[in-house]
Amino acid sequence: MKNAKFLIIRLSSIGDVILTSPLVRQLRERFPAAQIDFLIRREYADLVRYNPHLSNILELDVRGGRAELKMMKTRLREAGYNAILDLHGNFRSVFLRSFPNRPPVYKIRKNQFPRFLLVKFKINLYRRLYGHPLSAAEKYLRAAAPLGLSPGDLRTELHLPAEAEKKGEAVWQELSRKNFRVVMAPGARHFTKRWPAPYYAELIRALYEKRGWRTLLVGGPDELQTIKEIQRRTGNEIQQSRAGELSLLETFAVMRRAPLFISNDSGLMHAAAAFRIPQIAIFGSTVQELGFFPLNPNARVLENTGLGCRPCSHIGRASCPKGHFKCMREITPARVMEEIGEDALKE
């Protein structure tokens, strides 16, 4: 396909966008001279802005409502794309790609029926249908199979600008001199995906008492309350927080330098996986079959596999529907400490 023009649509969120990076890389390798554009919500645009495989970033400002959608749709119609890859599949992406004489559209299959059976009845068809749980990154690549892309290489990427790297290096150099060895991201959008704040505090104390390691806490504005609760339980001597002080890309730059990263199932977990640093991911209400385990050979996932009520949702809930929250409460700080051997730290 000479002088091809491709449009990739993935509007949000952090983890989902990072998981598109294997497709972006393979599309560039398959079509080195092509124009490859990426349509994304403005607040997430920095996640792909510095990707060398992309030609243009199209930013959608959802605050503009329907008028913004109509203007973007006109822009897409006039761009003359040869193919559109809709990796989101929501009402916005469908609206944006629906116009007369549109090019071929390659859409992600969300496996809604197997997901429904798994969440509602705990009937697991994923291994029977596919032989293994499908990562979201593999689903994206399967959608692009007609273009010659293959799900064999699922390495994720995250590209940062020089100024963010410089800030991250300066912050970590300062902290490492004080024996900070661990970065923790205790946030997640939904309650049932968040390991309890008291458990994080207990783990921070144990790491300091048994290993002498101090901990850096990171996150966005929505995590400040959780982080402050953790800090109240630990004191300032053994931890620091940079939540709300660093930009998202600066936070990533600090994380990539950490010898060990610990988090819930969150967007920052996928960022750590893209850097392939040693990490521990704590999963509550979600499971591997839903497609969002970290794609990192250096990752260890902790989950309570003995519960018959998991998963209770495909994205997480505001509260435990059973009232016991055993999926997280039964993963104790002691169990996490057992997973952190001396070999968990990178040099």
Please specify the SSE layout and strand pairing.
Elements: E1 5-9, H1 14-18, H2 21-30, E2 35-41, H3 46-49, E3 56-60, H4 65-79, E4 83-86, H5 91-97, E5 105-107, H6 112-121, H7 126-130, H8 136-143, H9 162-176, E6 180-185, H10 197-211, E7 214-217, H11 224-234, E8 239-241, H12 248-255, E9 260-264, H13 267-275, E10 279-282, E11 299-302, H14 326-329, H15 333-339
Parallel strand pairs: 1-2, 1-4, 2-3, 4-5, 6-7, 6-9, 7-8, 9-10, 10-11
Helix pairs in contact: 4-5, 9-12, 10-11, 10-15
Nearest-integer average pLDDT: 95
| Rg calculated over all Cα atoms | 21 Å
Q: CATH top level of the largest domain? A: Alpha Beta
| Poorly predicted sequence stretches spanning 5 or more consecutive residues | none
Discrete helix count: 15
Helix content: 25-40%
What's the main sheet like?
A: 6 strands, parallel
**CATH level 4 superfamily of the largest domain:** Glycogen Phosphorylase B
User: According to CATH, what is the topology of the largest domain?
Assistant: Rossmann fold
Residue fraction in strands: 5-15%
Strand order of the largest sheet: 8-7-6-9-10-11
Number of domains: 2
Number of strands: 11
Q: What is the 3D form?
A: globular
Class derived from helix and strand content: alpha/beta
Task: Tell me what the CATH architecture of the largest domain is.
Answer: 3-Layer(aba) Sandwich
The H/E string reads EHHEHEHEHEHHHHEHEHEHEHEEHH
- How far is the N terminus from the C terminus? 45 Å
